[in-house]
Amino acid sequence: MDISRSYRKKMDVSRKYEDFLEFRRQENSNFLWVSRTLHPQVAYIQETPPTPSLHKHEVLHSPKIQELLEKLSIAQNVPKTYFEKQVKEILDEIGYNKSIKIIRWLGMVLTKICLKVSSGIYINGNKVQQIRSMMGNCPVIFVPSHRSYADFILMSYMCFTYEIAIPAIAAGMDFQGMWGMGTMLRDTGAFFMRRSYNDDSLYWTVFKQYIYQLMTRGDLPLEFFIEGTRSRSNKSLMPKFGLISMILKPFFFAQVPDVLFVPVSISYDRILEENLFAYELLGVPKPKETTSGFFKSLKILKEHFGSIFFHIGEPISSKEFFGNSIDRSIHNIAPLHKQELTEQEKSAIPPLAFEILNKQQQGFVLTIFNLVALTLNNTYTNKDKLPNILELKHKVQWLKGVMESLGAYIHCDDVERGIRECLVVHRNLICFNSDNEVCLVENQIQQGKINTVKLKAHQLTDQVMTYSVPFVELQLYVNPTLFHIVNLAILLAVIQKEGILNKEDLWDRYHFLRSLYAMEFVIPAQMEHTVFESALEHAIALNILRLAANKYDLGTNEELQNLLHNSFKPFLVSYSTVMLVLQNSPQTCEQKTILANVQRLLEDAINDREEFVHPYTLNLDTLNNCLNSLCAMLILKKIIRENVLSFEIDKRQLDVIKRRLDVYIPSLRINEDLLVNQQLQNKL
Amino acid sequence: MPPPPSQSEKIKEPIFVKSVIPKRRQELLKWNGWGYNDSKFVVNVDEKQNIQVYFTGKRYPIGEVPLTHLAQWAIDMLNIDLTKPPKTSQPLPTESQYPESKIPQSILQQLENLGISHSIDVVDRVVRAHGQTLHDVYTLRNSVFERIPDVVVWPTCHDDVVKLVNLSNENNIVVIPYGGGTAVSGAVECPTNEPRPIISLDTTQMNKILWLDRDNLVACCESGIIGQDLERELGKMGFTTGHEPDSYEFSSLGGWVATRASGMKKNTYGNIEDLVVHVKMVTANGVLEKNCQVPRLSCGPDFNHVILGSEGSLGVITEVVIKIRPLPKCRKYGSIVFPNFETGVKFMREIAKRRLQPASIRLMDNEQFKFGMILKPEEGYFSLVLDGLKKFYLTKIKGFDVDQICVMTLLFEGDESDVKLSEKKLYEIAKQFGAIPAGETNGERGYMLTFVIAYVRDLALEYDVVAESFETSVPWDRAITLDRNVKQVVTNECKRLGITHFIINSRVTQTYDAGCVIYFYLGFNHKGLGDPVVLHNKLETKARDEIIACGGSISHHHGVGKLRRRWYPKTVSNVGLNLYLSVKKELDPKNIFATNNLVQSKL
Ligand SMILES: Cc1cc2nc3c(=O)[nH]c(=O)nc-3n(C[C@H](O)[C@H](O)[C@H](O)COP(=O)(O)OP(=O)(O)OC[C@H]3O[C@@H](n4cnc5c(N)ncnc54)[C@H](O)[C@@H]3O)c2cc1C
């Protein structure tokens, strides 16, 4: 399959969404609707429809598990029944249930909540119907983006609405802790997966077999989050390969005819957890999800969350995707349960994972608020005068044109009305000031006593927190736009600093930056060149760059250049600071120390208000992306000892990279300030 | 060759067998389809537009009775318009349609001198230019073959063959052995780009039973003997080979060996490789054979297995010493109904595990079960299978789902007491699987239908429908998924190709210790979709790819021929491929047996 095509593809501006809450709003009785006779379409019709307990039974009695138990029993000289009991317990911990009563009840509750707090849940209904009609013949896997806990509840609600069998959903164990919640989710089809890879090999063998079972003998669709966890930054995270590998195993083993992956992009006008995420990004530990926390969040009922958009992507057939590159007959000899995926098969999985993620990214719907956020963010960065509503409207209108030309889909009927709605939905974040200008809301933050053990990095002062949180929250809504503009921003950064370049050199610099930021703005390596070409085309078209005598030079669209420059700047600053800290760290250094030192430096820089340093530079997501990227480049090496993560630093290589990166860093005082350096040294 | 054993009985040997099939095959058999001229499905539309389908002739028990349900079924499943006049075949080929025979006059003269019967008549040549693939029959009905043999020869004994092969080798003439012409692999077709003259070596006039050895229970037969002739003649003497491929009315002993054929009753009698005790093959390099007639020997690689499955590419099989058995005293049919396919397969696996297989045991999937009902004359949909039981009992009391029910047919052979015991054991185990015995008639009918099904294709072609089959062998643990995946892949591919009306169903036809055989039927309406042969080829290729991905084989008994060549190298590994090629080079340095089967030769 030609992946590159899909990267170049222009966004389909003729997308059609319907508000599926509309029917609920209009009907006399939601109760009649939730209690209607259901004809859910299953994914993979089985001769004998399986039940949750049948799955558990078959896993326990699978040759794989039975042989393992026999081995364990002999090795440890313990009766097999002992381990059987363990497996049963594990299966009870993992396994999903199905209670139609709970589902209907939840359907009722959700209808009420959604009608109250949202202005609509939009979906491209045609695609849903199309997918529904394709179902029945092989496992179907829904792969939604993960921006909120609401994701999977709403996914199930969507399926309930469209009479698609509610998927078996891979959920994290943290829900289990929440009293009532765990059981409730389980009853609606969630199965649970322990988070960290501990060395409980019995657990993982059972878990994998459970997935195998659901894939080969199950009839429900499956659902999992390829990003592994909720993205706190509202940007796509690097795909994880663990679960998708388990899902694909039966396909590679030819135990199912195909596996269909359905990418789902869920966009929120306003994210339920925005405030929480801002704290987490800054390093304040995430409170464990407890039910009381959940009920506290019932206060959301008093808030308004605008619209939610489901974009159901074109299903990806594994069979077509892998085509002839995979020879499934290699597993023909020896029992399947004694076989594992080959290296070749394992290496074929990441491109598929990236493709799914890419489809999610393309599918996201931008709303007016994303453009408002981008505009305001730019105003603050420039320290410009804040816009009144008319000025804002003009800016947003202009941006909308730009973004659409870049292939973004923006949901908007009327810009001004859209902005006014933003001011309601996001009244916690933006408001009018006394001059009738739109500005960020400032809330005094008092952190009180903080358990330093729980801190992920540096303890930021109340003052910096108060200043930073609104910016970070705002950035959450800027981030989704970056997918469309970051490549332009990188091209611009290069030409701005290096002047006229020919294409080859430009590609060389672009490639350097793009791969350094490959985890920040997720892109698979093999796609860089295609993306580069298309970004160049756009850059010329938008007059960001211009082409003369086969060389690239700055264009004259200064307004857009300024916006691009400012939107990429925080990421340059963060990465450069991480490297600066690494340069001044000992050979081996704990992750937490590195993060804390970076934040400390940046905190100083932010406090020094002479020059605007974006508070988002403090966010741990970006700092960790930088560390991971350096790991991928073999400049850092991860060392885990007693659950503590440290990095071993190859300083020579680091110097090389840092020098290359610093070319593009806007002159910032942290760089030159030796004092700071020394101060840092003292602290280390 | 070992000397013929001493005889006590007074049978005049060799036995000159008068074959049912005449030398001019077309006098009895369809030249453009399957089987006897007098046996075929026909559609009658009366003045009131009532459609009635019949099977003509009295050769098969189904003959001459209206098949009441077939028409509606065909309309529903395959969207056939039976009121339209059927598509007819072109008439018998004429000389003008094909290039003149390339055989040099000098060779014809030498054949004359050797006293070997031959013909360059175009019909004789066309009739031997093909087997029974869709491509073959479709070409016969609608167009011309790219290449046909230049001459047909009829040797009558081993020595004739030796002379023919020598003659051909000296003159660099291609020889293609031809037995019954029932191959469904493209094996008998002439390589299209062969510039040399081609001889079709028809073995059917070389069909004597040379001798019978009652002490060791073997018979030495010439390779051209046709299955039904062999059985009839042996039967007269109280024996049987028990080898009964579905094509045994028309296929030959030599063909069986050359394709590694498998008979329905292999559980009791064995497959062809189990039945062959000694075999002679005339190669360009001389005669390959052994010096003893022993049950088994430890003597290096067994060259019988070079001959078996050689598909005419290494030489001509002339004489085969084959095992025979006394005719069974008792033959009994049976059938069992299963709630679903998977249970049926599990049952079969259990029977195989306990080695309790009767002579034949087959499991039809739900669609085939229904089709079996369709082919029933007159009575209602369900009456036959239930055999005294009531549909009510099955569906209401036992809770079987009509859309999942599968039926198994059984054939028992042996002494009466053994058959009884075998039946008892089987039905007991069936009960444990929640299955229900469904009587003898259903079983018998199932086996009778086997022979009739082959005639369906010709009817189908008249109404823009392709009806073909393909088969594979597979380990037990992968049987169900293979079956299911292949059906799914065919379904998807049909949709992709724009085929709206199609059927894909299957049966498990054989069991082994380590696996089973799955036989698929594929039918589709190709009206308006272009060349049906191309369409079918696409479908079957996808299906075979999936079969192999699912752990199945290139073929269980149809062989490789030209149709399945592309999967041969991977099946046997590169070393295996080269091994075959070096054998080929040794036995046939000039490539006169240029059948192009198994491997495309580099000309
Ligand atoms: C309706 C139908 C049902 C069938 N059922 C079965 C079945 O149940 N089991 C089964 O195994 N097959 C079955 N077949 C396939 C076919 O009948 C077998 O492959 C059979 O063995 C072919 O024998 P034949 O005499 O017709 O050979 P042909 O079709 O004449 O030839 C087949 C190949 O063998 C070569 N050959 C033939 N005779 C000789 C010889 N004497 N020496 C060297 N090479 C020779 C030919 O060159 C050719 O390559 C069926 C086919 C049809 C059409």
From TrEMBL, chain A:
PANTHER family for the chain: DIHYDROXYACETONE PHOSPHATE ACYLTRANSFERASE (PTHR12563:SF17), GLYCEROL-3-PHOSPHATE ACYLTRANSFERASE (PTHR12563)
Pfam families referenced in this protein's UniProt entry, alphabetically: Acyltransferase, GPAT_C
SMART domains listed in its UniProt record: PlsC
Chief location category: membrane
Family that this chain belongs to: Belongs to the GPAT/DAPAT family.
The name this protein goes by in its record: Phospholipid/glycerol acyltransferase domain-containing protein
Gene Ontology biological process terms, A to Z: ether lipid biosynthetic process; fatty acid metabolic process; phospholipid biosynthetic process; triglyceride biosynthetic process
Residue ranges annotated for the Phospholipid/glycerol acyltransferase domain, each copy included: 140-269
Membrane topology: Peripheral membrane protein
Gene source species: Callosobruchus maculatus
InterPro entries, alphabetized: GPAT/DHAPAT, GPAT/DHAPAT_C, GPAT/DHAPAT_LPLAT, Plipid/glycerol_acylTrfase
Keyword set, alphabetical order: Acyltransferase, Membrane, Transferase
Any one GO cellular component localisation term in the record: peroxisomal membrane
Subcellular location: Endomembrane system
Molecular function terms, GO-annotated: glycerol-3-phosphate O-acyltransferase activity; glycerone-phosphate O-acyltransferase activity
From TrEMBL, chain B:
Cofactor(s) needed by this chain: FAD
Residues where substrate binds: 457
EC number(s) reported in the record: 2.5.1.26
GO MF annotation, one: alkylglycerone-phosphate synthase activity
Domain FAD-binding PCMH-type per the UniProt entry, residue ranges: 145-327
Binding site for FAD: 259-262, 311-317
UniProt KW Flavoprotein keyword: yes
One Gene Ontology term from the biological process aspect of the record: ether lipid biosynthetic process
Pathway: Glycerolipid metabolism; ether lipid biosynthesis
Description of how the protein assembles with itself and partners: Homodimer.
Full protein name: Alkylglycerone-phosphate synthase
Organism of derivation: Callosobruchus maculatus
Classification of source organism: Eukaryota, Metazoa, Ecdysozoa, Arthropoda, Hexapoda
